[in-house]
Amino acid sequence: MSFNTFGKIFRFTTWGESHGPAIGCVVDGCPPNINIKEQDIQSELNKRRPGQSKFTSQRKEDDKIQILSGIFEGKTTGTPISLIIYNKDMRSRDYETIKNKFRPGHADFTYLKKYGIRDYRGGGRQSARETASRVAAGAIAKKVLENKLGKKFEVVGAVTQLGILGCDTKKWNDKIIRKNPFFCPDKSIIKLWEKYLLSIRKSGSSCGAIIEIRARGIPVGLGAPIYAKLDMDIASAMMSINAVKGVSIGAGINSAQLTGEENSDEIFQKGKKIKFNSNNAGGILGGISTGQEIIVSFAVKPTSSILKKRKTIDKFGKNTSISVKGRHDPCVGIRAVPVGEAMLNCVLLDHYLMNKAQCG
Hints:
Blueprint: E1 5-6, E2 11-16, E3 22-28, H1 38-48, E4 65-69, E5 71-72, E6 75-76, E7 81-86, H2 108-115, H3 131-149, E8 154-162, E9 165-166, H4 174-177, H5 190-202, E10 209-216, H6 230-239, E11 244-249, H7 260-263, E12 267-270, E13 273-276, E14 284-285, E15 288-289, E16 294-300, E17 310-313, E18 319-322, H8 337-359
Antiparallel strand pairs: 1-2, 2-3, 3-7, 4-7, 5-6, 8-9, 8-10, 10-16, 11-16, 12-13, 14-15, 17-18
């Protein structure tokens, strides 16, 4: 299976399967002399770890990270950083009864048709379990960016819509995001989301979500036309996340409903600083960062593994039905927040290093 590596200068390759002995990644292109310890990576992994609330998968994984290479005396050496996470709570028996059936909404059908073989235990390589490795790589990228860009740099993600229920992003509060199980930025909607998702789970179904990631403290000039646009690579990064079906930068798809004067972000000078009256562009113009907050949102489809019976076929071409038992997220979008943050960190560092290589 090809194409397991992401990035140009800052690159990471993930490996492993959902029910294999371990998953992990190899990070290459990381600058030397960056202070990194296992806890820096662990704190990010803890955000996406399953089993932390009744609103996520009850699979119990501590996702403990182990650094195997690339760091000496607490500093990166400039050599490949190898990371491993051991799987501990696999229940492969949950998939025995459906191993010959194609789960609707999953990639079972396409994997088998393409490769002629598939790992039915939790989906193997297609499982969202792989995203833990991305979060580990993103934690390294975050540490490098904090070193290079200073205290003003930060990337913060949140769930802004849960199924049919949105929130008021004007009430966005960074502190609230980390204090609730939904990564919700609007305190006033949390209780309603709780009732809604519990009813979804009780019915044996699932729902989707919209996640918004904001990057602050980004300098002007990251990204390059024509085939290395910053927004192009961000969109690619988000679309690579399991279950993501759409990406918007700034006003995104809603910009089609705006007039020219509504959509354009007026520019003015204030002292020695250049300011914008709005940010419909999401902090990127012509594929190059403007220095504004970079705003990206993406839509995550409902979890495909549900208890409700659905029609399907088996690998022999026979019509049948399926009900997927086991431990699944009623809304997989919730745990996609730290994954989105990680992918944005990786893209931003990659473009920071490319910009330094070309422009100094």
